[in-house]
Every structure is written in C-alpha cells, then in structure tokens.
C-alpha cells in the first residue's frame, strides 16, 4: 500500500487540525508540567496505560506501534502524530533532494546500544538533514556545540571535518574514545559577550573552510548566543546554523525579553488605535 500523498496545503491543514484536537496537550509550556498539574489534562485511560509501561517501552512508544491494549483514543493520537511527522520530514527532505527519499529507508546508525530509541531517532533524522544541506551549501566543516558524548559527531565525522565542543570533561573524554576522527574541545562558551571575537574567529575556521554550526539540545542562553554570533559571521565562511534548543527556563534574560515583547506589542496596538 502506497503512502497517501499530501500537498503543502494538505500538510498544514492536518497539522492545524491535529493541534486543535489535542490542544489540551499543547497550549501550555512543558516546564509547567508539575507546577500547573498539567497531567490532569491527560485522559485517565491514557495515563493508566502509560503507567504500566517500562522505561524502555515508554521511550520507544513514540516510534513503535503500541500494543493492542492501548486505548483507542491514544492509538488515534499516536497514528495521527506519526503520519504528520512522516509527511513533514519527507517534505523537508524533498526540498533538498526530491528524487532520493528512498535512500533513507535504512537507518544510519547500526548497533549503538548506548543510545535510547529516542536519541537514536533524533540523531538519525538530524544527521540526514545536516548531511544534505551541508552538501547543498558546500560545507566541509561542522562544529557541534554541546556535543555531549559524541553521538552526533560520530556519524558526521565519517563525512566532514568535525569539531565537538562541550563543557563537561567526562563527556569530552567519552566523545574522544568514540569519535577517533573528530577534534574534541572541552570549553565553556561564555554568554555575556566578553569572548565574542575569539569565538567568531574560531567558528569561521580556516580560509578554505565552509562551516556549519550545530547545537542539538543546547541549554538556556547557549542558543540565543549562537544565533547572535551567527548574524555576525561571513556567510561565505559559515553559511549554515542548525540549533535545537532546550531548557528555556534556564535563560538568564528570559524575563527581560518577555517584558520587552509585551511592551512592544502594547506600543504597536497603541499606534494602531491612535
């Protein structure tokens, strides 16, 4: 059975319908899960089913077909979310290599028992997009900031000149063992602007390098810092940045930005009505 074909408009429509149907899961930030008792929004029969799963089964739940005992409404949620993800991911790939989607039917990562199913899923799909966009933009060097133990760079180092940066010495030592062809640097990136020029020079690399900056699950202030630096870089030297942030609640200047956003919004409304 061939997969149903969706246009971009169809995909957007399905995403909107999905979010509206399950907005009880999506209309609050997950960092308030405990403080606002967000679990009370989840259907009781969903919780009863999920509570019986082991940690391994729970980690694999988003990526594997649930058991026959799974509640019907949870099965519907699972099927809808996976269908949307598949079409969305293929749509992103098609924008880069429209005739080669079948080449990615086989997993990139083989037999890495140190990765959970969730982590493997993230690394595999992120690697695919990185590799194709880097080829498209002629990138030969990748800097992974917040590389951890090296799951991502171990895949990328087979195809690119790779530098992994992390502030955790134990993670760096593990990354060095698993990524023989990558350069690992134990470094804390200062987010207060005092080391800007040094970091910009390092990110730019040698004159013959074209670099992509990558950060998978960088915490707090790291992501806005990287974006701020990327805006200052020469696009001929550093044409790409890929960031997937996490831990927004650790951002030291979050309150300032939020207040500024609301202030500007109020000023705009004032201009409109006056």
From TrEMBL:
<feature type="domain" description="Methyltransferase">
    <location>
        <begin position="118"/>
        <end position="252"/>
    </location>
</feature>
<dbReference type="Pfam" id="PF13679">
    <property type="entry name" value="Methyltransf_32"/>
</dbReference>
<dbReference type="InterPro" id="IPR025714">
    <property type="entry name" value="Methyltranfer_dom"/>
</dbReference>
<dbReference type="InterPro" id="IPR052220">
    <property type="entry name" value="METTL25"/>
</dbReference>
<dbReference type="InterPro" id="IPR029063">
    <property type="entry name" value="SAM-dependent_MTases_sf"/>
</dbReference>
<protein>
    <submittedName>
        <fullName>Methyltranfer_dom domain-containing protein</fullName>
    </submittedName>
</protein>
């Amino acid at each position: 059975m061939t997969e149903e074909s969706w246009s971009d408009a169809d995909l957007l429509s399905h995403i909107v319908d999905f979010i509206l149907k399950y907005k009880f899961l999506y209309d609050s930030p997950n960092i308030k899960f405990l403080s606002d008792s967000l679990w009370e929004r989840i259907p009781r029969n969903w919780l009863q089913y999920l509570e019986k799963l082991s940690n391994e089964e729970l980690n694999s739940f988003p990526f594997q077909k649930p058991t026959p005992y799974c509640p019907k409404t949870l099965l519907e949620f699972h099927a809808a979310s996976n269908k949307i993800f598949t079409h969305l991911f293929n749509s992103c790939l098609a924008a880069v290599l429209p005739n080669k989607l079948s080449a990615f039917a086989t997993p990139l990562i083989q037999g890495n028992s140190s990765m959970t199913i969730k982590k493997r899923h993230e690394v595999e799909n992120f690697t695919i997009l990185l590799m194709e966009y880097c080829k498209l933009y002629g990138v030969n060097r990748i800097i992974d900031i917040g590389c951890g133990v090296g799951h991502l760079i171990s895949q990328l180092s087979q195809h690119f000149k790779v530098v992994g940066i992390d502030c955790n010495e134990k993670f760096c030592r593990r990354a060095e063992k698993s990524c023989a062809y990558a350069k690992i640097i134990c470094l804390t990136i200062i987010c207060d602007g005092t080391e800007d020029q040094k970091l910009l020079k390092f990110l730019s690399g040698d004159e013959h390098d074209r670099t992509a900056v990558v950060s998978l699950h960088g915490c707090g202030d790291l992501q806005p810092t990287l974006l701020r630096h990327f805006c200052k870089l020469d696009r001929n030297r550093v044409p790409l940045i890929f960031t997937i942030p996490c831990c927004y609640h650790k951002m030291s200047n979050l309150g300032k930005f939020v207040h500024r956003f609301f202030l500007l919004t109020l000023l705009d409304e004032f201009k409109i009505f006056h």
